[in-house]
Amino acid sequence: MRTLCSSTLIGEFFVIGFAGLVAMKEPDLSMATVWTVSGIAMFLCVLLCGLVTRPGGVWLGWALQIALIASGFIVPMMFFLGVVFAALWWASVHYGRKVDEAKARFAAQADSSAPDAA
After folding, report:
1. pLDDT at residue 82 is higher than 90
2. Percent of the chain at pLDDT above 70?
3. 10, 16, 27, 51: which has the fewest C-beta neighbours closer than 10 Å?
C-alpha cells in the first residue's frame, strides 16, 4: 500500500505546486498567502508518504484529498483534479491493501512449506 499511496501523494505534490502558480495570478490573493498554503500542502504530501502505513495515515490522506477538492474555489480546475486524485487515493488504498494481504499470504505459505534446517 505504501508504494501506491506514496506515488499518488508525490503526484499531488506537483499538482499543488502548479496550482500555486495558477493561483498567483488571482488578484485577491497575496503571493505569501498562496505559497504558504501551497507549501504546507506540499509538505504534507511528502510527510504523508512516510506516515501512510501508520495509524491515521490513510485518514490524513483523505483530509488532504478533501482540501485538494476544496481548493477548486480558488483554482476551478482543482475541482476536477481533486476528484481525480481522490479516486486515485481510493484505488491506491484499496488495491494496496489487497497487494499487502496477498504478499502476507504468500510469505506465510512459503514459511509453512519450507523445510526446517535444524
Report:
1. yes
2. 97
3. 27
Choose among 8, 29, 10: nearest CA to 73: 29
The whole-angstrom separation of Cα 47 and Cα 34 is 20
Task: Please tell me the pTM assigned to this model.
Answer: 0.85
**H, E, C per residue of 74-110:** CCCHHHHHHHHHHHHHHHHHHHHHHHHHHHHHHHHHH
Q: For 48-52, 88-92, 108-112, which range has the lowest pLDDT when averaged over its residues?
A: 108-112
* Cell triple for 12: 499531488
